[in-house]
């Protein structure tokens, strides 16, 4: 059997979509050798309209945009989908219901990785939507992981850094120090690890720069995609 074809809904932001593409292909090559790479079809969405929908609370329209993308990828041969963003998993059900192929959910992959390592309480950093809207923390809890989130003022600054700095590939030393202080505070509150619950945070902080073990959602999700791609491969 050949490698399975993965569909990637990307562009949210383009910076993190690049990391998905690199991670998936490098891991496929590491496992198979030679010149092997992944069979990927990708639709990279224009991000600004999505951001405006988020800010306006128009999740129904945002969900339909992503559902259209999912149908498009299915029509050109995708056998499963990856939504290369944490925040837009808020509309994951809309995306999944639009197609007949599986959506590999980022929260499930992250929760499974934590539990495999015997961890059940983790700091969660991401956009304001990811940290406080419930779609992420509730799904983690259903899979046995309790999320600790920063206070409201810290959430505001984290959200600002993500959209104004990281999505535009403009990380700063000040932002790095701020994130480190937030993680240290959540460690003092009982966090055993930190979830990079925004696919751009890995562009700002390396694991060795954090006071807690790092579970980078983008990398974990990409590796879950690799597992799918290799299913049944001979």
UniProtKB/TrEMBL annotation:
Keywords, ordered alphabetically: Isomerase
InterPro entries noted in UniProt: Asp/Glu/hydantoin_racemase, Asp/Glu_race, Asp_race
Designated name of the protein: Aspartate/glutamate racemase family protein
Family: Belongs to the aspartate/glutamate racemases family.
Signal peptide: none
Pfam families: Asp_Glu_race
PANTHER family: ASPARTATE-GLUTAMATE RACEMASE FAMILY (PTHR21198:SF7), GLUTAMATE RACEMASE (PTHR21198)
Organism of provenance: Dentiradicibacter hellwigii
Superkingdom as given in the UniProt entry: Bacteria
């Amino acid at each position: 059997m050949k490698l399975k074809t993965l569909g990637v809904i990307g562009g949210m932001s383009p910076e993190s979509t690049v990391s998905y593409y690199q991670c998936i292909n490098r891991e496929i090559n590491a496992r198979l050798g030679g010149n092997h790479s992944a069979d990927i079809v990708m639709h990279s969405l224009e991000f600004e309209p999505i951001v405006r929908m988020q800010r306006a609370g128009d999740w129904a329209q945002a969900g339909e945009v992503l559902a259209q993308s999912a149908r498009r990828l299915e029509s050109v041969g995708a056998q499963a989908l990856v939504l290369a963003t944490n925040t837009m998993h808020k509309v994951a059900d809309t995306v999944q219901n639009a197609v007949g192929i599986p959506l590999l959910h980022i929260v499930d992959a992250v929760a499974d990785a934590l539990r495999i390592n015997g961890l059940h309480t983790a700091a969660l950093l991401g956009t304001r939507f990811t940290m406080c809207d419930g779609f992420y923390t509730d799904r983690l809890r259903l899979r046995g992981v309790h999320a600790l989130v920063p206070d409201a003022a810290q959430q505001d600054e984290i959200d600002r850094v993500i959209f104004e700095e990281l999505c535009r590939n403009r990380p700063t030393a000040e932002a790095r120090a701020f994130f480190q202080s937030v993680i240290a505070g959540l460690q003092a509150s009982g966090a055993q690890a930190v979830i990079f619950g925004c696919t751009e945070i890995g562009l700002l902080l390396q694991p060795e720069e954090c006071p807690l073990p790092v579970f980078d959602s983008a990398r974990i999700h990409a590796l879950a995609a690799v597992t799918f791609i290799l299913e049944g491969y001979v």
